[in-house]
UniProtKB/TrEMBL annotation:
This is Oligopeptidase F. The keyword Signal applies. Residues 231-608 form the Peptidase M3A/M3B catalytic domain. The keyword Heme does not apply. The gene is pepF. Pfam families: Peptidase_M3, Peptidase_M3_N. SUPFAM superfamilies: Metalloproteases ('zincins'), catalytic domain.
Length: 630
């Protein structure tokens, strides 16, 4: 949960949840020909946060007892520079404790979504965070009323306010969207209710949907989300069709309910945008971190302009796989067989080798972190699907979640999530108040890691077949992270716009909206990939849609990641220095100027066109290899 506008939320949870191939296709799943290996998989140590559940509960009650002190600050912030510092420091210290509290509760819940007590604790964690939001809801209005001249005067007079400068400037910038203290308190009180659609969706899709049981090569398989991602890339086209035919009707059968849940989420977002006098939901989402809407719109524009490259890749896939007519069920099968499965230890070694261009300090820190119990990578029933990094426990260390299954996608996911973790390690050189970072930057180091790994795998392939596999994986990563996320971004724009126009939004209408995009992006009309109508329900499988206008940043960030990965791999020392300046900057400035200072402007077409060129170059290499004999 993140408090809007009060930029004191510098250590916001970076829950990159469900970075699995289907729900966050920035991590497309591929499958090894051999049985997956989970050797050396880990379970995180949450006792570093709290010794046990009772200790957590005692801290929750202790925090709640402090809220009257926060409320008593109302009306005092403008008295003097010292009064402002005292109030902001008290709130910052409280949020620091709250972030740790909520981290423990949410991660315990994610270990097994079927344990009711853990789900209840997670709700209590969200609840007390919302209560904190109510207690400090006066801050924005009070600071805005002080005016820029007075606030800047206080900052100049009191050095201790320097760490709060970015927060205060953000509040002043958003003053026109700040309501009266009473109205702010009302919106804060409503935040828990407005979060419920996402909570309902998570429980419904992770714990309650009735997954079918099918038989694959004589083995009974319960086709839940994890098994779907494992088998949808099966080399046997009959198995892939069987998996898709069994899996997607589950979502289709719940189309009305899932549509009502997502429509409630959309209406809550639109309600907030209207209440705060924004012209649209996307304008509100971009305003929090001061990101030009041109970034979002340019991404969508350039993704559409690049569709011929995407169609070229999809046609190449069909040719390599000897498919007369590719269907959507053929999207995830790898174009070549990997050398074999990887243990987690092997994945870590590959990651360290691939990231050597980032320098000794980076790889030493990463290697040491691998040996700690920061990550829960052991697959288990009921565990939240996908992958994320939680960096909110500033006083401890980042935590990571994924289900390591031994295929190349798991290796790539590991490199991706540890990119987030290392970003947090470097940004924590900042004071707590500016140690967080916007999602607009967050996905840059993770995708840069993926691309450096992909380039390493190509460069160090021992055989033609290994090089073909490595190139095909890189292409699939670019497809899934750039084009697929841009398609998601278009869907979000259309879905929110429908609510803003007062149009009825149902599961059926959402499926039609998504199906139209799916067909356009995959060249259905041109015969590139046949998209059956049932796949329009895929929107219901994307949990990131409950984090409004979030997924587009995967596409912008992989473009930025490609920019940095290319230059750093070539030994550009100046670029490497700018890159680490970006990682260490945290939330010390708005993210868009930080990326521009690092050397690229994501509001212009060039970064996206460079990524498309990279994709075409990889296809040129792949086609050249395929034309030669083994």
């Amino acid at each position: 949960m993140k408090l809007s506008a009060i930029a004191l939320a510098s250590a916001t949870l970076l829950l990159l949840s469900n970075a699995q191939a289907a729900s966050t296709p920035s991590k497309p799943v591929t499958s090894s020909a051999k049985a997956p290996s989970t050797a050396s998989a880990q379970q995180w140590d949450l006792t570093q946060l709290y010794a046990d559940d009772a200790t957590w509960e005692a801290e929750r009650q202790a925090i709640a007892a402090e809220f009257p002190k926060l409320k008593a600050l109302a009306g005092t912030l403008g008295e003097s520079a010292q009064s402002l510092l005292k109030g902001l420091d008290l709130m910052s210290a409280m949020q620091r404790r709250l972030s740790r509290l909520q981290s423990y509760a949410s991660m315990k819940a994610d270990e097994d979504t079927q344990i009711t007590a853990n789900q209840a604790r997670s709700q209590l964690g969200d609840q007390i965070y919302n209560q904190y939001g109510e207690a400090v809801s006066f801050v924005n209005a009070e600071v805005a009323a002080m005016g820029r001249a007075k606030v800047e005067g206080f900052i100049a007079a009191e050095p201790g306010l320097a760490k709060h400068r970015q927060s205060l400037q953000t509040i002043l910038r958003m003053a026109e969207h700040t309501l009266s203290p009473k109205e702010e308190a009302l919106l804060a009180a409503a935040s828990e209710t407005l979060q419920q659609p996402g909570q309902i969706y998570t429980l419904l899709t992770n714990a309650d949907l009735p997954w079918p049981k099918i038989k694959i090569r004589g083995k009974d398989v319960v086709l839940d989300q994890e098994q779907y991602t494992a088998y949808r890339s099966d080399p046997d086209p009959k198995v892939r069709k069987q998996v898709f035919d069994a899996f997607w009707p589950v979502y289709k059968n719940y189309e009305r309910t899932l549509g009502a849940v997502y429509a409630a989420n959309l209406r809550g977002t639109v309600f907030n945008a209207k209440a705060r006098n924004y012209p649209s939901s996307v304008a509100m989402a971009q305003a929090e971190y001061n990101i030009p809407e041109a970034v979002y719109l340019t991404l969508v524009q350039e993704a559409n302009a690049g569709l011929p490259t995407l169609h070229r890749y999809l046609k190449l896939r069909s040719k390599v796989l000897s498919l007369k007519q590719a269907g959507y069920q053929d999207m995830y099968v790898p174009l070549a067989k990997p050398a074999g499965a990887y243990t987690q230890a092997e994945a870590e070694a590959l990651t360290l080798a691939a990231l050597k261009p980032l320098g000794e300090d980076y790889t030493q820190k990463l290697g040491a972190a691998f040996k700690q119990n920061w990550m829960h990578s052991l697959p288990q029933r009921g565990k939240r699907s996908g992958a994320y990094m939680n960096g909110a426990a500033y006083d401890v260390h980042p935590y990571l979640l994924m289900s390591y299954n031994g295929d190349y996608n798991s290796v790539s996911t590991l490199a991706h999530e540890w990119g987030h973790a290392m970003h947090t390690v470097y940004s924590n050189s900042q004071p707590y108040e500016t140690s967080g970072y916007a999602t607009f930057i967050a996905e840059i180091p993770s995708t840069a890691n993926e691309l450096l790994l992909a380039d390493y795998m190509v460069a160090n392939a021992k055989t033609r077949d290994e090089k073909i596999f490595a190139l095909s994986q890189q292409l699939e990563n670019l497809r899934a992270t750039f084009f697929r996320q841009a398609m998601f971004a278009e869907f979000e724009l259309a879905a929110h716009a429908a609510v803003e126009k007062g149009e009825p939004v149902t599961g059926e209408s959402l499926s039609k909206m998504y199906l139209d995009l799916l067909k356009r992006y995959h060249g259905d009309a041109q015969g590139v990939v046949k998209i059956d109508d049932i796949y329009g329900i895929e929107w219901a499988y994307i949990p990131h849609f409950y984090r409004d206008f979030y997924v587009y940043q995967y596409a912008t960030c992989i473009s930025a990641g490609a920019f940095f990965a290319e230059g750093i791999a070539k030994g550009d020392a100046a670029m490497l220095e700018r890159y680490f300046t970006l990682l260490k900057a945290g939330n010390s400035a708005d993210p868009y100027p930080l990326t521009r200072a690092a050397g690229l402007d994501l509001a212009t077409p060039e970064p996206y066109r460079a990524l498309v060129r990279r994709m075409n170059l990889a296809m040129d290499q792949l086609e050249g290899l395929l034309a030669t004999k083994s």
